[in-house]
């Protein structure tokens, strides 16, 4: 993919973050098979507006990652949707993706930016820490994600409260993503103070993810 097209995807995300209604940021299932992208994902994003899709495959096997990335890239770029990968930033350029989502706050943003260049989308998860988010922004992150926003059997008490997103939206220009344990009511509540709503298992665990995603869209647009 050309640098110009990668830059277009990056600029599109920035522009979309200026809208009052948050945009959908999808995270693919960690255990998806290759048919997922054309048989499940493609029909959903054909009718539901999505700004970005993150490859969530859990494998560290480059051949497996590459096969999934090829499928995601083709589906996403055909619809002018940005495609980023989880953590594996050294694979971004060779796989023709638009960027990477890191999980280490501000620690490697400068290193990743040096590797990928100015045009790549670089986002990072910052837990519930505004301080880490600010450091990541200063280091050059294009967006910050906070979460989880609610408790689950797998999370402790360290959730990202509404106040964190509210403060960020008032004080910082860098786009903010909410992710992790987002139910319908929380989506409605967070909508005015976030730029992107990240959804993964919230929709994929349902028998009909298209209907579930539409419910989230109704909540953030109401």
- On the 0-100 scale, what is the average pLDDT? 92
Order of helices and strands: HEHEHEHEHEHEHEHEHH
What is the overall number of helices?
A: 10
Unreliable stretches covering 5 or more consecutive residues? 1-5
Spatial ordering of strands, largest sheet: 1-2-3-4-5-6-7-8
Oligomer: single chain
Q: State the separation between the terminal residues, measured CA to CA.
A: 37 Å
C-alpha Rg, in Å?
Answer: 16 Å
Beta-strand fraction estimate = 15-25%
Any overview of this molecule?
The chain is an alpha/beta fold. It has 10 helices and 8 strands. The protein has an 8-stranded parallel β-barrel, surrounded by 5 helices. Helix 2 (36-47) packs parallel to helix 3 (62-77). The longest helix is centred in the N-terminal third of the chain and has 16 residues, at 62-77. The protein is globular and about 40 Å long. Mean pLDDT is 92; it is low at 1-5.
Q: What topology does this entry show?
A:
Layout: H1 3-16, E1 23-27, H2 36-47, E2 52-55, H3 62-77, E3 82-86, H4 92-95, E4 99-102, H5 109-116, E5 121-125, H6 130-139, E6 143-146, H7 162-171, E7 176-178, H8 184-190, E8 196-199, H9 201-204, H10 209-221
Parallel strand pairs: 1-2, 1-8, 2-3, 3-4, 4-5, 5-6, 6-7, 7-8
Helix pairs in contact: 2-3, 8-10
């Amino acid at each position: 993919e050309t640098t110009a097209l990668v830059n277009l995807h990056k600029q599109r995300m920035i522009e979309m973050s200026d809208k009052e209604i948050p945009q959908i940021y999808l995270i693919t299932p960690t255990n998806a098979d290759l048919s997922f992208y054309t048989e499940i994902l493609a029909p959903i994003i054909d009718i539901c507006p999505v700004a970005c899709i993150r490859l969530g495959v859990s494998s560290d096997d480059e051949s497996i990652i590459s096969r999934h990335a090829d499928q995601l890239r083709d589906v996403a770029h055909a619809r002018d949707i940005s495609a980023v990968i989880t953590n594996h930033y050294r694979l971004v350029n060779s796989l023709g993706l638009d960027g990477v989502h890191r999980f280490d706050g501000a620690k490697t943003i400068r290193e990743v930016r040096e590797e990928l260049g100015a045009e790549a989308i670089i986002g990072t998860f910052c837990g519930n820490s505004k301080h880490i988010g600010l450091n990541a922004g200063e280091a050059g992150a294009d967006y910050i994600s906070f979460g989880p926003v609610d408790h689950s059997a797998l999370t402790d008490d360290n959730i990202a409260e509404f106040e964190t997103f509210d403060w960020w939206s008032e004080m910082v220009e860098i786009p903010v993503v909410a992710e992790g344990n987002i139910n319908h009511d929380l989506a409605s509540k967070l909508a005015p103070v976030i730029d992107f709503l990240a959804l993964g298992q919230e929709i994929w665990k349902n028998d009909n993810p298209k209907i579930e995603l539409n419910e989230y869209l109704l909540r953030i647009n109401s």
